[in-house]
Amino acid sequence: FNDKFERIFRLQEKGFKDDAIDFAKLAFSNLIGSIGYFYGSAQVQSVYTKSPVPYWKAPLYTAVPSRSFFPRGFLWDEGFHGLLISTWDLDIELDIMSHWFDLINSEGWIPREMILGSEALKKVPEEFVTQISSNANPPTFFLTLDYILNTRDAELLDRHYKLLTELYPRLQAWFEWFNTTQVGDLPGTYRWRGRDSLTNRELNPKTLTSGLDDYPRASHPNVDERHVDLRCWIAMAAGVMA
């Protein structure tokens, strides 16, 4: 582990002190150690159902934000995890991405959180269990893909070209879902869904779907909001697709 860590990240070569390198190894090994295999069915709600229904049963190979407190897959977290995991082992990262994109539905939506199994379910407050199919999460896997294409393109094309050709239609469906369901009322604007306009418990209702949960936004959520961060995600994703 120590030899591979230095060969890949070259922290000694870059002049980092031993205590900083030890800290980096601890953080990274915790990330790698958080990768797990889950199986089960998430609970989802859509405009087509009167109440939450089970998603199809599926496996998920993914890292998690915290093994003790958040033992489940988070869609937007996984794109950031992938920046490091793909540097360490490209095969592992592509396996993780493939599992996530196997969860895409016919409309191009992927659940924000995959709460699979009784252990994961016990850690989730009841109000957060159901995944709403109109709600997004930042498409961070485009960051991962962009990084891989810029750093491992030869290996990707040589060893994983078939996977890329199979993945692309799902990426396209995911992008189109964002570009149709998350648009604002004015052309060229975008708006995160999922903010609670009726709550009297918060001055600034959270935007959990954005990943920036408590980032200051309009105090009264409404259709006139224009979320610049979502527009930036769309622009970045379009660039990667191109």
Could you explain how this protein is built, in words?
The structure is a single chain. The protein has 242 residues and is mainly α. It folds into two domains: 1-33; 34-241, Alpha/alpha barrel (Glycosyltransferase). It contains nine helices and seven strands. It has helices spanning 2-9, 18-33, 75-88, 90-101, 118-122, 141-151, 153-159, 161-181, 228-241; strands at residues 36-40, 43-45, 53-54, 58-62, 73-74, 113-114, 131-132. The strands form three sheets. It has a three-stranded mixed β-sheet, with no helix packed on it. A hairpin with a 7-residue loop joins strand 2 (43-45) and strand 3. Helix 3 packs antiparallel against helix 4 (90-101), helix 3 (75-88) runs parallel beside helix 6 (141-151) and helix 6 runs parallel beside helix 9 (228-241). The longest helix has 21 residues, at 161-181.
Topology:
Blueprint lengths: L1 H8 L8 H16 L2 E5 L2 E3 L7 E2 L3 E5 L10 E2 H14 L1 H12 L11 E2 L3 H5 L8 E2 L8 H11 L1 H7 L1 H21 L46 H14 L1
Parallel strand pairs: 2-7
Antiparallel strand pairs: 1-4, 2-3, 5-6
Helix pairs in contact: 3-4, 3-6, 6-9, 8-9
